[in-house]
């Protein structure tokens, strides 16, 4: 890797080195692993199928037949506050507020064999081990930790479809590798539907596991190879309730038996090890078959050189990170490149090396001319992550839209994805926001598929009457409060999505569709209560619900938010919202109140996704619906307030520490907000080609675009105090308004912000 040249401070403030820099050094995957961030510290590649990372407990999804609230802390499997590690599994979500995965947990041990994981209070009662953060290293594409109880050093790295482990053992004739096929995230007693394992020889096993979790029909196939032959192996089936067992009892299946099947299986592999001996494992995954998993392994890691695979992983990350080169303080660089890292984790590749994947119809499909992706957390990521991809990862975003269209083609319900996850839709959250992603990609010229077919898919999805109140929305122009607990937020989000459909239709000259959906996009007005000035639940008879508190997050018709935040959710038409709220001056005062009011704890006590750390006044940055709000001052003739609030949020909500995120990163959405805002602009309404300007945090930055051009962000007189923008030049010409267009970026050039400690109010 090319190291940074040491330049005089004066030059550093004005020059970005265009050659590839060593940017991996600024990525700290540990950021967000404490408190609410829900990120994981393990090894993965950009948009990789494998996310190889430690688990720190075995919390069950249910307790005494009810939801166990503590499981929410383990959405990513790892919690920084914990003192023990239970093992290393191969699939994880990054930053989500619900979870699944945690497949194929591997744990090295030595001494007496223990096949249960033990507990946090009694770790020596099982195979888990104590660990210390002092003996832990988390980097892009690499993770290392010492397992104190067994004196074993664990190291992890990955390719796109293969996780590679390296375990350094002490001298022992009782060294073990445990493969726990029961373990999982958001686990419960019956989650594993079936497991199959075939011991091919003394270094290779293959198999699959089917689970019923967030994705209800999810099967993952694997091929697992050891660098050294095991001397013996065995398994234990913990399914005492299995009524029918056939005649397999003729064999001793617990020891050295080559075929294992059941719902609750743990396996072990025994070795003799010398002091400091390294045992390596390759675990390849496939959505299609054991054969494909083995093909993935052989294609991506042919040998056993762990350091070579690690170096390749970090080189791959460094290439991706260099798509944006920023000059700023060290802490800000850590925040920026860790955000860029988190943004490039999801969506995840869902295609084997031969192009095959399993579709929603449970059939095997071949991606023709594109990479198929899954893990679309669209309620979160349509806002900033996919718009960010349209600038920095357009080819991938093109493939992601094609993946959504494949999802639509395979869907028995003829719907685009809501929350796509391993050949399933888990239907989480509201809106049909894939239409926003598709519209944004069509309007910005990213999508090269059949745009008219994509529009038809959007329209069909938006007219699916029996999905979450769409029929009421179409007939009445809103969803009655007595028909849905999230009636207001659904109406608002549908209205925005309909506007996005209208913009795409206009681009394609489908004016009949445009007229229909631009009319639907005004439905947000039906939930606006002029008397209170808030978005409010409306009953089927057309009257507003009487019991109403705009601060409350519970029982008020909103999902993961309150009316104070959702009342500003009209990103498609801020001018009309401002008019309804009394004009620009009153609207700005209302925004001021949001950012300065005190929101008592009682109003978010029952909401997992909102904590005090993610709140500024009454503005909730730790959740997505309000992410555009700070930029709305630009429509009030008071853009300096956008500048001040954006810088305040950047500095308050993002820190280079384990607890450095004020809320769930949500598959990169929080990170995308940070990067856009650090660079000085933000997509308030995806589906539009306009970005609102803010207050850049960087000294300067170079965006290396896929079209071969560069776009430079430059600041003059940048400092912690100079948060206000005196003037902005685009390619040397003064901008008259605080907005730029997508073409301004993609054509290359330079935007220069002249910073000041005083707001410019004229």
UniProtKB/TrEMBL annotation:
Domain Glycosyl hydrolase family: 292-756
Any one GO MF annotation of this record: hydrolase activity
Gene3D superfamilies: 2.70.98.10, alpha-1,2-mannosidase, alpha-1,2-mannosidases domains, GH92 mannosidase domain
Cofactor(s) this protein cannot do without: Ca(2+)
Signal peptide (UniProt feature, chain positions): 1-19
Key word Hydrolase present: yes
Domain of life: Bacteria
Key words, A-Z: Calcium, Hydrolase, Signal
Stretches assigned to the Glycosyl hydrolase family 92 N-terminal domain: 26-286
Keyword set includes Cell membrane: no
Cross-referenced NCBIfam families: aman2_put
Assembly notes: Monomer.
This protein's name: GH92 family glycosyl hydrolase
Species this chain originates from: Pedobacter punctiformis
